[in-house]
Specification:
Two copies of one chain form a homodimer.
Chain A lengths: L10 H13 L4 E8 L9 E2 L3 H10 L4 H9 L5 H8 L6 E4 L5 E2 L6 E6 H32 L3 E4 L8 H14 L3 E2 L2 H7 L9 H5 L4 H11 L5 E3 L5 H17 L6 E4 L4 H14 L6 E4 L5 H9 L6 E4 L1 H4 L9 E9 L5 E3 L14 E7 L5 E8 L7 E2 L2 E5 L2 E2 L6 H14 L15 E3 L1 H17 L1
Parallel strand pairs in A: 6-7, 6-11, 8-9, 9-10, 10-11, 15-19
Antiparallel strand pairs in A: 1-5, 1-12, 2-4, 3-5, 3-17, 12-13, 14-15, 14-16, 17-18
Helix pairs in contact in A: 1-5, 2-5, 3-4, 5-6, 5-12, 6-7, 6-14, 9-10, 10-11
Chain lengths: ~450, ~450
């Protein structure tokens, strides 16, 4: 993380920090970061963002200018500002590794630390889990419907800023996308950059075929011709001519791109024409406001598309542009320094008390049959999804490669009930609380309700 | 701009660049950046993002490592890589100043430059206009419905990354928001940071009232108590007690916050109780999934809310998380070096040819009565909205202060027909093409259609 981002937090993290400093200085606490409810069109979510979080935790310091700025707000005591000056995160963090499939109410990240330290992390952690997990979940749906066709992230122009575009490329790659048009993202993450041509290139020549020829001569084996600038039928005919010209010169037209109109119709037409002309190696790319529903419809119509370029719908997660990520206190030490479970009662926003772990259970065939949210110390026969990544402020987790994360997700998805991947997202994977957690929750609710 | 962002572009900008380099080296061209169609719930848009664009244009260079990376892709000739090494933007840019109200098809930014240079700018410019303009437009709707109540940006946790959060705060301030919880954004843009307390603070104490007392003692005149952690009625009663306690100590409870449940009901109840207790100065804050529709409904029910904290719905522009921003070639030089207008014909995606200007017309009373998109050289009696900001690669525009931009928007909105601000966004502001532009469009369409 850029150290200049340390003040990227909600003011109340610091005002509460001042309150904790005055009244709760040695209090320790645990917080759960989780998602409340599935968004539209989702039956599962994909954990992403941990690498950034670890980088942030490692580098979190308040600079002299930060402190000066905070001082100018007339909210904080000199002692607390001094505490911030020396601030380091010294607690523990448990998290689901990136690429882990998760569900609502399951802690994705769990912090145990001095309560001020844990509180100061809140805003950045929520922000940093929200976008990549949301994008990976959306992109994963597209990958499922893509049925093995190549998928490219073409969303740079509609992402929410430059940094978002990098996170989107990374997340879509984790979900199974094959490449991206975003050169910087490709460079940073070691992903293949990919691109075709824009209408402007064609329009800058007097005749469409002249622009095709210029491109073909420039990229003898990587040319993808965009055929819908003026008239798709004519554009396909011109691409055909160019394919034959290139073949004659012992080059190879790589593909054509359809960006508008009836993609099913035109891809079939183009495929037929290309094959008939002996250009069966020329690939067909489709773009233009695609999402998982449109890709599914195209493949159901047997549109012979080889590669899909997906932009806005994936890169801004148009149907669900935010996850309901929250960060809630689940235990806190009492005067004797003993951790006591806590929960929030407010209507429809109850939280689960205690320090928890998530267990994923398998059936006899090794397939996932349900998750159990349990108290940390319970012994449950299943894989514990939260792993310790920070111990006493020290990062003890080694970030896997992107390909490893991608494989993890792929492996996991292959082990869930198949309905989980259905496009209508109606399937609900079995999710339970352990009897102990359930008992604690009920006991605590009753106690709190009685007290009110 | 961070110089490390120079490769933040779609690969095809560079492959086309190579094609232009080979076949169109001295060609000059103009591109329009505009929005195709209004998104859901919008009757107008607000131009934002220019400051970032100018910063980008000024600093755009390809570093040694950028060049090395591009070389490794085996796509580019040594000559072209050498061209990139020396790359500077040397063209002209016209743009609508930030805070300008605009409509679909109106160029918001217009570039005239060597065609490669103009092409290389495409992705970053689109990305950089999209988010802030979208957010400013959404936030502006909320400001209208807020009817002068205070509005705070609480969206950091759900923005698409850290950088997006900064852009969101800036855009919402331009639209008329009063402050933000985002401390870094507040610091960078000179906006007032604002905050209350979270449920965790309350839950970290044994009794709600203990947490209230701790906060009250910490912030004798800035305490805002969150009252819905366990039971809203009891929370309000505790806040009341605290208000009286603070009054007794000659301090002042600043406010209470409602974050769930029936805000209209509870705000009325709390107002009544507070007033009855002589605490009429205590403000009521409302948060919790608010947007312009909910704020309107609350104010129609005469909910006595003083300040609204708006998060996700504004900060991720939930109802319209992307604008259909595009960047289209509108003229290009021919062999004689003369600019010739061009356009794209493909179905439902036609573009407007020629170098254009947008004129905003007033009626006798000085109110805006319609916009005309015209050719640049036409004389139209109206305010020309595009101003020259870059001349031969030199920035000639001085960025106004944020407050100036905010005032510009406020002034403009007060001069449009009132229906433009209606929440249903059904009003369509009159938008015409000039006769000359219309003639050119028709002539060119016919010519292009005949050629196909």
């Amino acid at each position: 993380m850029n150290k200049e981002l340390s003040l990227l937090l909600d003011l109340y993290e610091l005002t509460m920090g001042q309150g904790y400093y005055n009244y709760r200085r040695d209090t320790r606490a645990s917080f759960d970061l989780f998602v409340r409810g599935l968004p539209k069109n989702r039956s599962y979510l994909v954990a992403c963002g941990l690498e950034d979080i670890l980088d942030y935790v490692k580098n979190l310091r308040f600079s002299e200018t930060d402190i000066r700025y905070l001082k100018s707000q007339n909210l904080f005591t000199p002692e607390f500002l001094n505490y911030l000056k020396k601030f380091r995160f010294t607690g523990d963090i448990w998290a689901m590794p990136e690429g882990t499939v998760f569900f609502p109410d399951e802690p994705v990240v769990r912090i145990t630390a001095n309560i001020s330290e844990a509180q100061i992390l809140e805003s950045y952690l929520l922000n940093t889990i929200n976008l990549p997990s949301m994008i990976a979940s959306k992109a994963s749906r597209i990958v499922t419907q893509g049925q093995g066709k190549q998928l490219f992230d073409f969303s740079l122009r509609r992402n929410h800023g430059a940094q978002a575009s990098l996170m989107v490329t990374r997340s879509s790659y984790i979900a199974g996308f094959d490449g991206t048009s975003n050169v910087l993202a490709a460079k940073l993450f070691g992903i293949k950059p990919s691109g075709t041509m824009a209408h402007s290139f064609i329009m800058s020549f007097k005749e469409e075929i002249d622009s095709f020829l210029a491109y073909a001569n420039t990229f003898p084996d990587k040319t993808i011709l965009l055929v819908d600038t003026y008239n798709t039928k004519k554009g396909i005919a011109n691409a055909l001519t160019m394919g034959l010209y290139m073949k004659e010169k012992r080059n190879k037209l790589f593909g054509i791109r359809l960006d508008s109109g009836d993609i099913a119709y035109w891809s079939k037409y183009a495929r037929q024409e290309l094959d008939r002309a002996g250009l069966n190696f020329v690939k067909i790319f489709a773009t233009g406001n695609l999402d998982e529903f449109k890709i599914k419809a195209l493949l159901e119509k047997e549109a012979p598309v080889d590669s899909f370029g997906v932009g806005t719908n994936m890169g801004a997660s148009i149907d669900a542009p935010s996850l309901d990520v929250i960060y809630k206190l689940c235990e806190v030490t009492d005067e004797e320094g003993e951790f006591q479970p806590v929960m929030k009662l407010s209507k429809a926003k109850r939280t689960l008390p205690g320090r928890k772990q998530v267990f994923r259970l398998r059936d006899k065939n090794g397939k996932y049959r349900g998750d159990i949210i349990a108290l940390e110390k319970e012994r449950i026969k299943g894989k514990a999804l939260l792993v310790k990544v920070v111990s006493n402020g020290k990062i003890i987790y080694r970030n896997p490669t992107l390909d490893k994360i991608r494989s993890r997700l792929k492996y996991q998805l292959s082990n869930f009930p198949k309905q989980l991947l259905a496009i209508d997202a109606s399937y609900r994977y079995p999710l339970k609380l352990s009897p102990q957690l359930n008992r604690l929750k009920n006991k605590l609710s009753r106690r709190l309700e009685k007290r009110q």
